[in-house]
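Design request, tokens follow.
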């Protein structure tokens, strides 16, 4: 009998691009039209053009340039994304789309990295208050009340764009593929190489180079997003500072978590939840129990313990004897 996945077991179409400040890998199965990949890249560039803060001109930069002066009207897509990011930021769970000035002050991961003076941190905290954003739903305008405030959607934009790519692919009847936006992974449809149609996803070892996995999660189509302290560091006087900054204190968030990986239906949810879970400071046992779109989370602690939320031990296969899976 013919395997139900036979139609996908052909040479995939795959191309690599550079956008969103990172390497983009797009892979589709069961399709013989490579132009779709280039059209996908055009879609990515469109969203980058309106959402970026790494250029002087974009819809978001127009808002930043007008900080403390006047509200700025933006497109419907940009407004809805900003509104979602502001609402989440105002929950004060960790995610903050205004944290840009604090990130620039520390500069971790860049040539100007430093430990700022306490007075500079305190003054910067006044610029990252998400309550100081005024949104007008009727006019679709955004107003940053104080001069020097900066809106940055970098912590949510990749997830939003990945979800839009999936919608775009479905419009072309692409039923299986991989959207890799520089570490933000969205799996579309069945896995074409396995008879069970499930994907095998490695969970990064927070102590080793990228690509070294401590375990594998077996899952159906979903988004995978990770927040971890291993990506960028600043070493000063024998002390290490990671890049995940706490907008309440102005300093890197200190806890026992090395990384949090979230598996979700929508990539934008994964972006938000990984940040919020990292700031929770400990594995959250009942995380996502009332939200079917949140499929599972893997917490890795600095003392090499692994905790699972919404996953069972059968869903996670440990690869490293340096780590221990703890039931909770």
């Amino acid at each position: 009998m013919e395997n139900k996945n036979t139609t996908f077991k052909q040479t995939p179409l795959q191309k690599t691009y550079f956008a969103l400040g990172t390497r983009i890998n797009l892979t589709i199965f069961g399709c013989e039209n490579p132009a779709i990949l280039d059209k996908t890249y055009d879609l990515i560039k469109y969203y980058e053009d309106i959402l970026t803060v790494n250029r002087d001109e974009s819809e978001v930069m127009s808002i930043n340039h007008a900080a403390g002066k006047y509200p700025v009207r933006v497109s419907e897509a940009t407004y809805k994304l900003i509104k979602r990011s502001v609402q989440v930021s105002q929950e004060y769970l960790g995610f903050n789309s205004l944290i840009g000035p604090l990130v620039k002050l520390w500069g971790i991961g860049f040539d100007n990295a430093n430990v700022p003076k306490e007075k500079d941190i305190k003054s910067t905290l006044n610029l990252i208050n998400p309550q100081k954003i005024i949104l007008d739903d009727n006019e679709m305008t955004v107003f940053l009340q104080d001069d020097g405030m900066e809106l940055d959607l970098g912590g949510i934009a990749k997830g939003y764009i990945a979800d839009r790519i999936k919608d775009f692919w479905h419009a072309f009847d692409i039923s299986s593929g991989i959207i890799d936006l520089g570490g933000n992974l969205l799996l579309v449809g069945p896995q074409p190489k396995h008879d069970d149609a499930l994907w095998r996803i490695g969970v990064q070892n927070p102590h080793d180079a990228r690509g070294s996995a401590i375990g594998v999660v077996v899952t159906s189509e979903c988004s995978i997003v990770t927040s971890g302290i291993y990506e960028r560091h600043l070493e000063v006087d024998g002390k290490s500072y990671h890049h995940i900054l706490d907008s309440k204190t102005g300093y890197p968030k200190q806890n026992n978590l090395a990384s949090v990986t979230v598996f979700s239906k929508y990539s934008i949810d994964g972006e938000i939840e990984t940040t919020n879970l990292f700031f929770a400071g400990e594995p959250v046992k009942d995380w996502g129990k009332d939200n079917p779109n949140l499929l599972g989370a893997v917490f890795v602690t600095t003392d090499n313990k692994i905790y699972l939320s919404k996953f069972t031990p059968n869903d996670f296969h440990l690869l490293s004897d340096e780590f221990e899976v703890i039931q909770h």
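Comment from the thread starter after seeing the answer: thanks! The domain at 6-45+175-326 is CATH 3.10.520.10 (T-fold).
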